[in-house]
Design a protein that fits this description.
By secondary structure, the chain is mainly β. The protein contains three helices and 45 strands. It has two domains: 28-113, Immunoglobulins (Immunoglobulin-like, Sandwich); 241-806, Maltoporin, Chain A (Beta Barrel). The protein has a 22-stranded antiparallel barrel. It has a five-stranded mixed β-sheet with strand order 1-9-13-14-12, with no helix packed on it.
Length: 807
């Protein structure tokens, strides 16, 4: 029976799937230049400029030069053309040109007309239709509008179906690596975290237009995030007049008990409700555009339901369960104004605010080896409120040459984390009441200046950025009877970060070659001041000044084949939470503690990619290798004579990530299309030795750890009659390594229906995630004298129904 179930699952996995629809559109460019007389060098106004197909000389577009001799031809699609210039009293001139994908603006510079015959000049720029798999310097773009199987869920859930993306412990991974920089509308803010993805599971996917994945970022992006960049683009309506969209999604999760509780604890959440009303309105008139987006999310979740066994070298065995019932309310408002006083200048002022309220009710029973004796029952209530407010001001100046831009922006983010924990420590002989309070305010100010200059066969990008970030934090402990809390580990800590950076990037494209070369130079100074009475840590910090180069070279074999070679160097700086000195007591026998001596890790990445396209499909393959120095990872150690484990971030030395990736998309018929991806990689962590300082110095040594892992996704879309769509998606994640151990293989399937009603203005959907209820997380950890084996039966299966209406 088990074998049959596995076979059926495999067949389903190979035959069906569905995911985000990859954004596919024809690349278009704007051509510009200026006409001058060859003898006098004077401009030539009111001259004719005409573009025709090279093959049949069919007219494509035309214009005349303005009073300054300038011309502009917009929205010219892919293809090879001839462009002709003529003016009374001058010799006609014709050039051949081919539009390309890397540059949306091409400046032909000065076009000289004379009375003498001249040999024809040739200007070549290549173009292709973007297929979503490797467009515009390896940026992959995915729209969410047709993501039926994840509609009504969060952005984090929606990302699970993206090729190359996996989710582990609430963190995004690209190619098995969680060091991902997450941007919102091209900028970092505290909603997604500066180095973490803490808020993504509460951002409704309904508010998002598209998601961009950049595996090999150029120098114009911040250097942090060695796995790459994910850019989340919010919806923004560009229609004239007043318009908008309203929607309501509701659903239920945890419909069945997957694993019964251990004795004597409170029930698990069941039939957990999900409610998400949303509204988006926009008013555009002449030079002014205003917009407002609002979302309210209420959800109950069985956030964790982990059963574990700890076995120690002295024969001690402890069985435990970590059950966490979570209730979350999440309110988001985003608003702003776009003002275009004239054709050359524009201003955007926007604001973003959210409030996240989390109530966690947890039970952690600890039993002996045969469950005959309960050793401890730890119950907790976490009452946490997070506030985020962001204000942005952006100015753009468009020079008369199309694509010639100067952008200036200022972004300020304030984020408050207000946590209160209340514990009940039930022991065989007494009951204690303990609590703590943490208050943290994050202030981030970013100023950036960017300049873009189009060239005949490319462009130059350059700019600068300055960041100032401060995070004052205060922790207060309130111990009760026989408290296990370390009251001397509290107090205050101040995190201060200053980062000035400059960059330059050059892009060149010819008929057969593409080149992108850039250099970013960053100086980083981090100061971490801590309470002088802290029992373990003292004030610490670090600084560095480093160059971060990037290089991409591509050879176009023909219109359907392209080879690319990449190199870049990036950094992952420890986030403030990673170095935070205060222990976290939501699980009293497996404490998480930061490490202020943690240092950045630096990564060199090498990649070879190939793209093959055809009429209704494409395939992208890549081979890559990453070399990571001072690898950041969390290490658990036990203090001799105690069963408590201390999980602390450390720099573990060198590690390597080598792999291959394949992405395929194909439209088989007018009613069925699919895309699939397969990734295979080998993670290697070299042998290392570290010392966990808290609560007392403990040395841990680990030999070389290596595993070959990967993932596979098959995704398809069925277009049914009467504007109805059906999706079925499947994801398989192979066994992989985690710090000090392994995480087991996982498999899940999602499905969804969507139907357009009310002449396309209304939309109904129904979907389910993990419909087979197969997704559970298994881990095995080996430490200094202990082994930990666990399985988490958290809530993964959710069914949703929703309606939206455009007006």
């Amino acid at each position: 029976m088990l074998k049959l179930k596995k076979n059926v699952t495999l067949i389903l996995f190979l035959m069906f799937a569905s995911a985000m629809e990859v954004e596919a559109q024809t690349f278009k460019a704007t051509i510009s230049g200026i006409l001058k007389d060859g003898k006098s060098k004077n401009i030539i106004p009111y001259a004719n400029v005409v573009i025709k197909n090279k093959s049949d000389q069919k007219f494509i577009a035309g214009t005349i030069t303005d009073e300054e001799g300038r011309f502009k031809l917009a929205d010219i699609a892919s293809g090879t053309y001839t462009i002709a210039f003529s003016s009374i009293g001058h010799q006609n001139k014709t050039q051949e040109m081919t539009i390309g994908t890397l540059n949306a603006f091409l400046d032909l510079g000065e076009i000289i007309l004379t009375e003498d015959a001249k040999s024809l000049n040739e200007i070549t720029v290549t173009a292709k239709s973007a297929d979503g798999l490797s467009e515009q310097m390896d940026k992959k773009t995915f729209t969410l509008s047709n993501n039926v199987s994840q509609a009504g869920g969060s952005v984090l859930q929606a990302m699970q179906n993206l090729p190359g993306v996996t989710i582990q412990d609430g963190k995004i991974q690209l190619r098995g690596n969680d060091k991902v920089a997450v941007l919102v509308d091209g900028r970092q803010n505290a909603m997604t975290g500066f180095g973490t993805q803490t808020g993504l599971d509460n951002i409704p996917a309904s508010a998002i237009e598209r998601i961009e994945i950049i595996n090999n970022p150029s120098a114009k992006y911040d250097a942090n995030g060695n796995a790459g960049i994910i850019n989340i683009i919010y919806k923004k309506n560009k229609q004239e007049g007043f318009n908008g969209k309203i929607g309501l999604t509701t659903g239920l999760g945890a419909l069945w008990v997957r694993q019964e509780n251990l004795p004597t604890i409170r029930p698990q959440y069941q039939a957990t409700p999900k409610i998400n009303p949303s509204i988006s309105v926009n008013y555009r008139k002449n030079k002014l555009n205003t917009f407002l987006q609002g979302d309210w999310l209420y959800t109950q979740t069985l956030n964790r339901n982990e059963f574990a066994t700890r076995t120690y070298a002295d024969g001690t065995i402890i069985n435990q369960q970590v059950k966490r019932n979570r209730t979350t309310t999440y309110t988001t408002v985003k608003t702003g104004i776009d003002w275009n006083p004239d054709e050359q200048n524009s201003f955007t002022i926007s604001g973003y605010f959210n409030r996240e309220k989390i109530l966690d009710r947890g039970d952690i029973p600890y039993f002996n080896s045969n469950f005959s004796q309960r050793l401890r029952l730890w119950q907790f209530l976490e009452d946490e409120v997070k506030y985020t407010a962001t204000g942005s001001a952006i100015y753009q100046h468009k020079f008369k040459q199309p694509g010639h831009l100067l952008n200036a922006g200022f972004n300020y983010t304030w984020h408050r984390e207000d946590e209160k924990y209340f514990f009940t420590n039930i022991m065989p002989t007494f009951t204690g009441e303990d609590s703590f309070k943490l208050l943290s305010d994050e202030h981030v100010a970013d100023f950036n200046l960017d300049y873009i200059k189009p060239l005949k066969q490319g462009r130059i990008e350059t700019g600068l950025k300055l960041r100032r970030r401060t995070i004052p934090t205060n922790m207060e402990f309130f111990p009760g009877l026989n408290s296990p809390i370390d009251v001397n580990a509290g107090g205050w800590a101040d995190y201060k970060e200053t980062i000035p950076a400059v960059y330059a990037n050059y892009i060149l494209e010819s008929n057969h070659f593409e080149l992108e070369a850039g250099l970013r130079f960053e100086y980083v100074k981090v100061q971490y001041d801590v309470n002088p009475n802290h029992n373990t840590y003292q004030s610490d910090g670090y600084d560095y000044a480093r160059p971060f180069p990037n290089l991409r070279f591509a050879y176009k074999i023909n219109d359907q084949n392209k080879l690319s070679v990449f190199f870049n160097r990036r950094v992952d700086r420890p986030n403030e939470v990673d170095i935070r000195i205060f222990p976290k007591y939501d699980e009293p026998e497996l404490l998480k503690v930061g490490n202020p001596t943690l240092r950045p890790q630096f990564t060199n990445t090498y990649e070879l990619g190939h793209r093959l396209t055809w009429k209704k499909g494409s395939i992208f393959t890549s081979l890559y290798h990453k070399e990571i120095d001072a690898t950041i990872t969390r290490i658990a150690t036990a203090v001799p004579g105690s069963t408590i484990l201390y999980n602390i971030f450390q720099n573990a030395g060198r590690s390597y990530n080598t792999g291959a990736e394949l992405m395929l998309q194909q439209e088989l018929t007018s009613w069925f299309s699919f895309n699939a991806s397969v990734a295979v990689y080998q993670n290697t962590i070299k042998a290392f030795s570290i010392t966990n300082k808290y609560p007392v110095p403990t040395v841990y040594q680990m030999g070389e750890e290596k595993i070959t892992s990967g993932n596979a996704k098959v995704n398809g879309m069925f277009k049914l009659p009467k504007q109805t769509q059906f999706q079925l998606s499947a994801v398989y994640l192979a066994k992989d390594i985690v710090p000090q151990g392994t995480i087991g293989a996982r498999f899940s399937m999602d499905m969804g229906f969507k139907k357009q009603i009310q002449k396309g203005k209304g939309e109904l959907f129904l979907n389910g995630t993990d419909i087979l209820n197969t997704l559970k997380i298994k881990r095995e950890i080996q430490g200094n004298g202990f082994t930990l084996k666990s399985t988490d039966y958290l809530e993964t299966q959710v069914f949703r129904i929703g309606y939206s209406y455009k007006f």
